[in-house]
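This part of the workshop introduces the protein records we will be handling. A record pairs a protein's sequence with a compact description of its fold. Backbone structure tokens are a discrete shorthand for how the chain folds in space. The question running through the whole workshop is how a given chain folds. The record below serves as our worked example for the rest of this section.
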Amino acid sequence: MWDYSDVDLDFPRVTYATDEQDSPIFTQAYSSGTGYLKFQAFEAEAIHYEGVDEEGFYDVGRLIEETSYPLTTITGNPDDTFLFLADTFTYEGRINLLSFPMTYQDTYEANRIERTNLSLSVAAFGLTNAPVESRRYYSESHTVIGYGQVIIPLEDQSPSPPIDVLLVQIDGMAIDSFFVAGMVAPPNLTAPFGVSQGMVSTDQVFVFLAPGMELPVVRINFGADGAEDFIYRPRAADLVSSTRELSTARLSVSPNPVPCGGTLRVQIDQELTAGSIRLLNQQGQMISVPKVNTQGKQCTVEIPAQLPAGLYYLQAIDANGRLVPAQRIIVQ
């Protein structure tokens, strides 16, 4: 049991996931969230896009807002500038935060390339709005190192019910390279920014993942001096846990993905309460009570034809009134 119900956050920041199933920017995305992109002491606002398919949950790409900084403290010239260019970038390669299926002691490795387009004006080097590319080769190793339950604060700061989770350790390594106008940036230009060609950095992250959910319930980023970020999702408890007693029953569904307007076959190892199946969206909100035909421990669910394609959760209540853990489904 991990109990974070009394966690003390000095600088809380609230972010919300946005449905991106019809995104014209990243057609493979299903959600996005606001965040930041950092380059040393500089940062730009960014929107990070996530996707999900039968292989897992993964980062698709990002959109960066144009952001400019003076370089007076670095070069001494108030006219020198550092600029994040407004840009949309799809990651090259793929790293799954969560691979399907995944259980205790599973491990996998993956890598991707991230590119950030910048602009640099430094009079001492004769640079005026020179195009700069920061290129990062990033690799991660994911290992499920534990399982149990976690308690987090709800939105009213009261403790959540225990949430079943897997604890995943993520060890990351990044190798950075820098280019100016298509040429390798010289050391006398990179050094004032505290970077160098081929510099290597590492980080370690621990995430608590709940069955049926892709985004972590809790994410803790560790640096050299201890925890740097503590991120949790208060509404996660609404989706994967309840004050209602949990059932030991398990659902299995097919086909998955299922087409809009199609029929989903559900198998359960206990009797269901009539009319007890419902569909939830990614935020845990009920969006449909589908037509259900029940025969003993089997039933069929008619997926509404007007339901937008995307990720949903199928939830049920057994014959004793207990909540059955939600099952993830993809509607196409």
Observations:
- Residues 236-240 form the longest helix (5 residues).
- The chain has a mean pLDDT of 83.
- The radius of gyration is 23 Å.
